[in-house]
Amino acid sequence: AANKINLIPQDFFAELCEQIIHHLNHKIPGVNTAELCQRIQTSGIEINIGDLAKIANILSFLFSTAARNNLSTEELVTTLGSAVSTLPKHALQVIRHVWNEQGKSISAAEDARNVATVGQFVDMKWKLGVAMSSDTCRSLKYPYVTVTLTVADPSGQITDKSFEMTIPQFKNFFRQFKEMASVLETV
Fold first, then answer.
1. Cα–Cα distance between 33 and 20 in angstroms, integer?
2. How far apart are the C-alpha atoms of 13 and 56, rounded to whole Å?
3. DSSP symbols for 133-161
4. Which pLDDT tens digit goes with each residue over 14-33?
5. Which residues fall within 8 angstroms of residue 92, CB to CB, at 6 or more apart?
6. Is the pTM of this model over 0.90?
7. Residue 128's CB: how many other CB atoms inside 10 A?
8. Name one Pfam family in it (predicted).
9. What CA–CA distances, in Å, run from 77 to 11, 56, 97, 153, 177?
10. E strand spans, the chain
11. H or E segment to which residue 179 belongs
12. Where are the domains of the chain?
């Protein structure tokens, strides 16, 4: 992972660290590694989303472990310096700065995070479509609804999950959402 961190420019690495800290503080539902990876690639750096996700997971583990152990900035940097001698200098500088500025704020949030191990719903988009024809059937005229759910898994990675439903399935889906809304109103 250290050689992949070396590829990431300091400003993008700092943004990744900031997003992870915000996620650990429950200010954002997760780290959008797909969007960040695309921006890094647009700047001319060759990195894939899998490698960036691994780096994000490592940093998330690093910051949450440091928060659990109430490490000071110097303790964290000393531990990193002795354990990971291959970590790039710019990465150590960013980690030092981010932890110095915002590290203490995640200690309390980390205690609450240990309880929740499920993902978090971020957004939902839907669209109505009609299948007109296919190579095996000339006239379908079959309406369907495509739903895309954006969720953040417990590690903070944001992903999209898409599925299609027939109109009767969508009506049942909608009815269940109305039931949830009415139950929530009574709480």
1. 10
2. 10
3. --SS-S---EEEEEEEEEEE-TT-BEEEE
4. 999 999 888 888 888 888 88
5. 77, 80, 81
6. no
7. 10
8. COMM_domain
9. 19, 18, 10, 28, 48
10. 120-131, 142-152, 158-166
11. helix 167-186
12. 1-112, 120-185
Q: How long is the chain?
A: 187
Residue 121, burial from CB neighbour count under 10 angstroms (0-12, 13-18, 19+): exposed
Element (H, E) at 107: helix 105-113
* Angstrom distance (rounded) from CA 153 to CA 119: 4
Q: What is the predicted pLDDT for the residue at 83? A: 59
List CB contacts of 105: < 8 A, sequence separation 6 or more.
21, 25
* DSSP secondary structure of 59-82: HHHHHHHHHHTT--HHHHHHHHHH
Tokens of 77: 């940097």
Buried b (16+ CB within 10 A) or exposed e, 37-49: beebeeeeeebeb
